[in-house]
Design goal:
Layout (H helix, E strand, L loop, with lengths): L1 H40 L23 H4 L4 H10 L19 H15 L5
Helix pairs in contact: 1-4, 3-4
Length: 121
C-alpha cells in the first residue's frame, strides 16, 4: 500500500510540474519579448517600440495577423535566431542565437503566434 501511495504522489508531482514548466516557458517567452523585442516591435507587437523613430525602417508588426499568417514558423525561427540580414531583411534585427536558447527561440515563435492570433498558412 505504501508503494502504491508513493507512486501516486510521484505521478502527481510529475504531472503537476510538467504543467508548471509549460507556464514557465510561456512566461519566459513573454519576458524575452519584452526584454529583446519590444524596443523595436512594441510591447504588444504593434511595431511602435521606443526605438522606431531612429530606425529608418519600420519594424515588423507582430500583432498583424494578415501579414504574420504569410510567414512560416521556420522562417520566424530563422530570423529570430540568425537576425534580419540572414533573410535579406534589415540588419538592425540582431541574431538572438546565443542569447536565447533553441527552446526559448521556439517558444518565441509560439508567442509571436499568440500576438497575431494566427498560425502559418
Amino acid at each position: 500500500m505504501k508503494k502504491r501511495s508513493a507512486l501516486i504522489i510521484i505521478f502527481t508531482l510529475i504531472v503537476g510540474l510538467s504543467g508548471l514548466s509549460s507556464k514557465t516557458f510561456a512566461e519566459t517567452a513573454k519576458n524575452n519579448y519584452r526584454l529583446y523585442c519590444s524596443q523595436c516591435h512594441g510591447l504588444t507587437g504593434n511595431g511602435e517600440g521606443i526605438d522606431k523613430p531612429t530606425m529608418g525602417v519600420a519594424p515588423k508588426i507582430h500583432n498583424n495577423a494578415e501579414e504574420m499568417i504569410k510567414l512560416k514558423d521556420a522562417d520566424i525561427y530563422t530570423v529570430t535566431a540568425q537576425g534580419g540580414a540572414s533573410v535579406t531583411k534589415s540588419a538592425l534585427m540582431p541574431p538572438w542565437e546565443g542569447v536565447m536558447s533553441e527552446a526559448e527561440i521556439k517558444d518565441m515563435v509560439k508567442y509571436l503566434r499568440e500576438l497575431c492570433n494566427c498560425t502559418e498558412k
